[in-house]
Amino acid sequence: MSYSPYFNPELETMSRAELEALQLERLQKTVRHCMNAEFYREKFAELGITPDDIQSLDDVRKLPFTTKDDLREHYPFGLACVPLRDCTRLHSSSGTTGNPTVVLHTQRDLDEWANAVARCLWMVGGRPEDVFQNSAGYGMFTAGLGFQYGAERVGMLTVPAAAGNTLRQIKFIKDFGTTIVHAIPSYASRIYEVMKEQGVDPRRDTQLRILCIGAEPHSEEQRQRIEQNLGVKAYNSYGISEMMGPGVAFECQEQNGLHIWEDYFIVEIIDPVTLEPVPDGQLGELVLTTINREAMPLLRYRTRDLTRILPGECACGRHHRRLARLQGRSDDMIILKGVNIFPIQIEKILLKFKELSTDYLITLETKEEGDVMTIEVELSQLFTDDYAQLKNLEREITRQLKDEILITPRLRLVNKGTLAVSDEKKAVRVKDLRKLF
Ligand code: ADP
Ligand code: ZN
Predict the structure, then answer these.
(1) Which residue in 205, 250, 351, 392 has the fewest CB atoms around it within 10 Å?
(2) Does the CB atom of residue 241 touch ligand 1 within 6 A?
(3) Which residue among 68, 147, 302, 326 is best mutated to probe the pocket of ligand 1, counting the most ligand atoms within 8 A of its Cβ?
């Protein structure tokens, strides 16, 4: 059967001018609607602005920022813009550091969320003939229900396998003829490792063809590793619960940046210190304004995620701008001896070495000689017993790491299975044990 390459041709391929007109209309409506929340009424009063001040898209910069702390302080329902009786679901973040953040949805919000995810899945090639298996946790974690409803909207046969139990995941993949899997990247690697242990060859024994990987930072090298190991195309999926969850931005088949759906969001990239916009192409903090939400619209939400806008048009025919691969959050950045380092820079080097697996842990400690970084990384198989060969490998990896991050880490190559990675949660890549004083 031949299908359109677009799930929603009109919204996906509209020209920039049409898209921007739609954005302005939706922004003005959203700002007026925000006045239902005391939180925004007060912010507007402080800034001396009213919804009538929003006359162009650039006027978004007159609006107040919203932060995760604002959501926490007004926990649980302080930013609701509709009565609770009109809401049909809430999601919340883990809340390890104080009150969790709560996000409310009306039925229309859930519907539009499903449309956004369906658009993403269709964009990477998902069709009603596909069998879609979701290995994300169901429940409060938005990637569970978020992908579920999106895949159902495409009309795929869905397998809500949920998180964990890798042997069962693999059995489902084989028995149900799963063609598309959604997994966080660290878990995609785990599925492959367990397949190997079980003698399952993904190319021979499964019909897998697409992986949607997201929810945590990962390098291009990690994507390629997943593609080669599992014999699939792997697409980057960016989501954040405060904006809804998955479906915010997604790679198309060009695999060159993630289209962010500008009929849902107004995108800004700012300098996190001066809060001023940075020029297109420059790295900064992603700030998003929801323009297609009823229950809890958010103005200029500071995601803390660092990325940049990719200049130029995409060959796929969509004019929604593209974000570069997310670098990690501003608070993931390691500052060691005055040097700024992102874990993803380290991963990029490690994964160039076939002898290494995708599991690694960065530990920062204060020693007598000052702060030191130790990188433990698992060997991909019992690579060799040859001490000299291992030492050579260690030296070469260390040299390349130093070139990338400008300091020399202590490197420890450890056997497979030494670093416990969880089946269920986003991988923990950094342990900071430094003494502050
Ligand atoms: P939390 O992790 O705070 O419990 P979320 O589940 O909403 O809450 O996670 C959203 C965050 O996950 C984003 O802000 C971002 O830091 C990270 N993230 C999501 N998708 C990606 C991706 N494709 N690449 C890198 N980071 C991602
Ligand atoms: Zn594209």
Answers:
(1) 392
(2) yes
(3) 326
Query: By the 8 A CB rule, do 143 and 215 touch?
Result: yes
CB 356 within 8 A of CB 377: yes
Q: Do residues 172 and 144 touch, judged by C-beta distance below 8 A? A: no
Phi, psi of 46 (to 5 degrees): -60, -40
Tell me whether residue 311 is exposed, middle or buried, using C-beta atoms within 10 angstroms of its C-beta: 0 to 12, 13 to 18, 19 or more.
exposed
Contact 50, 93 (CB under 8 A): no
- State the Cα–Cα distance between residues 270 and 307, nearest whole angstrom: 10
The per-residue b/e assignment along 265-284, b for 16 or more CB within 10 angstroms, e otherwise, is: bbbbbbeeeeeeebeeeeeb
Residues 176-206 have pLDDT tens digits of 999 999 999 999 999 999 999 999 999 999 9
List, in sequence order, every residue forming a beta bridge with 106; answer none if it has no partner. 87
Strands 356-367 and 370-379: antiparallel
User: Before 202, cis peptide (omega within 30)?
Assistant: no
**Digit-coded pLDDT (tens) for 225-282:** 999 999 999 999 999 999 999 999 999 999 999 999 999 999 999 999 999 999 989 9
CA distance 317 to 299: 29
Is the Cβ atom of 216 under 6 angstroms away from ligand 1?
A: yes
Q: What is the DSSP string of 151-162?
A: HHHHTPEEE---
Angle CA(322)–CA(213)–CA(87) in degrees, nearest 5?
A: 80
Question: From CA 156, how far away is CA 237, in angstroms rounded?
Answer: 18
CB 324 within 8 A of CB 314: no
Place of tokens 């014999």: 231
CB-ligand 1 contact for 94 (6 Å cutoff): yes
- The atom of ligand 1 lying closest to the CA of 93 is 4
